[in-house]
Write a structure and sequence with these properties.
The protein is an alpha/beta fold. It is built from 15 helices and eleven strands. The strands form three sheets. A five-stranded parallel β-sheet has the order 6-5-7-8-9, with helices on both faces. The protein has a four-stranded mixed β-sheet with strand order 3-2-1-4. The radius of gyration is 26 Å and the shape is elongated.
Amino acid sequence: MSRVLPSKVHAHLRHLEALYRRTGRTALAGIIGSSTYYVEEDAEYDNWNGGTYGHAVKLYLPPDRFLEVDLDEASALGEQIRDDLNKLAKSATNEWYCAVYLELQDEGDVEFQMATPFSGRRSVDPSSVAFWRPGHARVFISHRDQHKAAARGLSDALEPYGVSCFVAHDTIKPMTEWRAEIMKGLQTMEVMLVFLTDDFDESVWTNQEVGYALGTQIPIVSFKLGRKDPPGFVSNQQALKGSLDSPAASAADLFRLIADALGRRERLQEITIQSFFEAPSFYDAKARFDRMAEIVDKLTDAQLAAITDAFRRNDQLHGAIYLVNHNNRLLKFLERATGRRFEFAGREIQEQGATREVAF
């Protein structure tokens, strides 16, 4: 069952930090403002009133801030923050904040690795994360472990569209600490794709992944593969229906939803151009060209240079009859997208009227 308070923690902490600062309680304001927080859902349970659920909040402090906290007072400070959080939580039926702990940041602590900085998302350069394909849309597939093979099949089906998918326990290389890698995927994803099977919301991990996306305002696409509708805070989103027997059959429709979720047309153009570069066959060159021609309205000089370079290097492009026959589809696309005229010269695409180098 989805809880309400975990998704409100950041807003509640932000309110308290501002209140403490305004009222001169600078020590408490500094603790929250410098913290990285983690929420342990359902840390306590009481069967009163049909069941009530307590969530524990861990505030991880950097060493310099933690040194300012008197160890004998740490518990009292945590209790003060907890009590004030609960004053903000009265509208959440049958939920409360059961504890607030002040702890020292520790890179080896799994919960710290999954924690969220109060000041914003962790800054991770996507290009430094090995499992994302360069230039592709970064899509995190949240799924139950038992459906890993089906999720990987969908990932493979989306790759020709310029979509790079993270599928936990499959994307991660052996001997890599898997929780840290999942966190990198969450921190650098552009879209979350919920692989919505009937058992999806029975996992604490999938619930936390969706909660992270919601908390950081990452767009979510729901792919419904069972009878259940999207749970909790994603229930108001339209879910694309598919089949668990052949999820890859929905790749084209999912790509359209992912494209909408990306929001920026220039980003969509980037991934379709990149996909065209990498066409592994004549058939793929045709499909990827048609997709690029439909989406891309205008090319920059850098994109034009990259396309002409890829045409020269990739046999599946300059050898594709569909692109180079009498219909001149590729040349017409380049002319439409640049306003300039081009011609083929073997493997080269040259601008008409441009000065050509003469070899001596």
